[in-house]
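Hi R.,

As promised on Friday, here is the backbone we talked about, encoded as structure tokens. Could you run it through your design pipeline when you get a chance and send me back a sequence?
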């Protein structure tokens, strides 16, 4: 007799469904180029200063490592904790929205399927409390 526990197909990890590290690095490359030049984010002087100080290749390396790790790949994230690297940046909820808009544009460009998009957004959203410290100023 079949044991239902053993015959239930286990879903491949998010890392595998995204196509592994080459696909993840390609998506991160596009996304970081987008956010580093986004005037909605660089209007924040602290963000603008850091975006012009950190070399893009190193930034992309760390974010690729982090996404690989968070998606269940073999990578280990070696960068600084999110609160530590963002607490001086005074990031507001509006800036967060611009960041997520850039993210959506990248996901759409590469045709990432809806289920995988939702899982990636859940990972990113889980960092909100460590990233967004400031309040948006009223319009
Ligand atoms: C509005 C949202 C965000 C903005 C404006 C922003 C901007 C920045 C900037 C300017 C740096 C360089 C800081 C420095 O070295 O002084 C940085 C570092 C970093 N950010 Fe963000 N970030 C945002 C959200 C996120 C999110 C949601 C993630 C991941 C889920 C993330 C991942 C990283 C990583 C991995 C680093 C490198 C940390 C290190 O230096 O060790 N960021 N971010």
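Update: got your reply. Pasting your designed sequence below so it's all in one thread:
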């Amino acid at each position: 007799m079949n044991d239902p526990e053993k015959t239930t197909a286990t879903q491949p990890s998010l890392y595998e469904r995204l196509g592994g590290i080459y696909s993840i690095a390609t998506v991160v490359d596009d996304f970081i180029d987008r956010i580093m030049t986004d005037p909605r984010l660089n209007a924040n002087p602290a963000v603008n200063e850091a975006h012009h100080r950190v070399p893009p290749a190193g930034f992309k390396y760390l974010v690729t490592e982090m996404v690989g790790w968070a998606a269940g790949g073999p990578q280990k994230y070696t960068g600084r904790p999110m609160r530590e690297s963002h607490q001086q940046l005074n990031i507001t909820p509006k800036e967060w929205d611009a960041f997520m808009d850039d993210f959506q544009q990248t996901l759409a460009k590469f045709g990432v399927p809806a289920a995988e998009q939702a899982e990636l957004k859940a990972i990113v959203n889980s960092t909100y409390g460590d990233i967004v410290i400031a309040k948006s100023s009223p319009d």
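One thing I noticed while checking it: The mean pLDDT is 93.

Thanks again,
M.
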